[in-house]
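Our preliminary data section would be incomplete without showing what the modeling component actually yields. Below, a chain of 172 amino acids is followed by its predicted structure, encoded as tokens that our downstream tools consume directly.
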Amino acid sequence: MTLHEAAAGRYYEDFEIGDVYRHALGRTVSEADNTWFTLLTMNTNQNHFNAHFAARAPYGRVIVNSGLSVAVILGLSVADTSQNAIMNLGWDEIRLTHPVFVGDTLYAESIVLDRRESRSRPYAGIVTCRTRGLNQDGDEIMSWRRSVMVYRRDAPQDKGYFPAAKTGELTL
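Predicted structure:
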């Protein structure tokens, strides 16, 4: 029997400049997603929740809250770029290049732009990626540069967190 410890994501050593990650999942944005996010964040722009009002705007329909779109694209990228991150260090050059509408399915991909060892934390490195979001038609809806501090493979901080069962090991 082989015990596979709880683990996910990439470590600093796994990133190479120029590598592209097409993130595995897509996410369709529903009306409920948009309405709840808009209410939660107290965004009172009626283009996000008032169909009658939005019908008179240039796109003629409700536009998904851009904060939600950014959050979805970020979330889609986590498994490949920041699952083992300690912290976000910065986002730059955020561009919203195409509107997102209810019913659109969002996808994300990232390219590694830079990597360097951390000067202050020997157990980590800093990785910078450009991430972009696409809709189901291949339209680029947004992009940004993001830097994260990521654990090195031998870092002890993210190991051994899975609890030991009080009833003993799992057996056949």
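The chain has a mean pLDDT of 94. The chain is about 15% helix and 30% strand. Preliminary results of this kind motivate Aim 1 of the renewal.
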